[in-house]
Amino acid sequence: MSSSFRPAVASAPCLLGSDSDELIHYDSAPAEVALLNGLSHAFGICLNENKDDPDARFLSHLASLFKQQRVDLETPLEKHDRPWGNVYLIQYGIVRLFRESNSGKVAVHHFFTEGDLIWPVFGRSRTVRNTLCLTSVLPATLWVADFAAFRSAIQSYGDGLWHNFALVLTEEIAELTSMREYRKHTMSARERYQLLLDEYPELVKRVPDNQLASWLGVVPATFSRLKTSFAKQGKPA
């Protein structure tokens, strides 16, 4: 992805603690740069320096709907039995998508990380029949916009634009859910744990074990045994 925000040549790290005349100082990029980069990635649009370009105006319009929000770990963002109201772009942190039964049993469906755009994919989740919850796993920096305004803004740029955009994430979530269920029914817990290490090493380092256990479809005690077993074999955990 090309961008108008091109990194300049940096000074050597050994100079960073000195007042050398050779040290090149740059202002830090404004936070909005992360927002525009995230939106451009989500829509497959390359940023450019022409502010009058239709794509640039489109991204600028969407960006104007978002406000930066910092949250602590385990902060509820969306709750079940309430219409899902917002769109989230993660600048830093991890959030989890899950369902929780009346008895307190939790089924984790997905983890979202830096750069991910999250919105209520399924129509039911936009009503009081919503069964999905969204909560921060770690302290997070998010960009938040009202979902209705976000969708309306996209629709105003073309009849088919919203449907094309929505289809991509809908298919991605459906595919990930289908594959997870397939693995749960056809692979052992040990095999699934190995895939977790291979495919999501950063999540293993950053997400609490009990949440990874729920995502993997095993009880915490089983997850702990698997983790210990793999550690004894010298495999990363």
Précis, in short:
With about 240 residues, the protein is α+β, with helices and mostly antiparallel strands.
Describe the protein's topology.
Layout: H1 31-43, H2 54-63, E1 67-71, E2 76-78, E3 86-92, E4 95-100, E5 106-112, E6 117-118, E7 133-136, E8 140-146, H3 147-155, H4 161-186, H5 189-199, H6 201-206, H7 209-216, H8 220-232
Antiparallel strand pairs: 1-8, 2-7, 3-6, 3-8, 4-5, 4-7
Overview of this structure, please?
By secondary structure, this protein is of the alpha+beta class. It has a domain at 31-158: Jelly Rolls. The protein contains eight helices and eight strands. It has helices at residues 31-43, 54-63, 147-155, 161-186, 189-199, 201-206, 209-216, 220-232, and strands at residues 67-71, 76-78, 86-92, 95-100, 106-112, 117-118, 133-136, 140-146. α1 crosses α2 and α7 packs across α8. The longest helix has 26 residues, at 161-186. InterPro entries: cNMP-bd_dom_sf, RmlC-like_jellyroll. This is Crp/Fnr family transcriptional regulator.
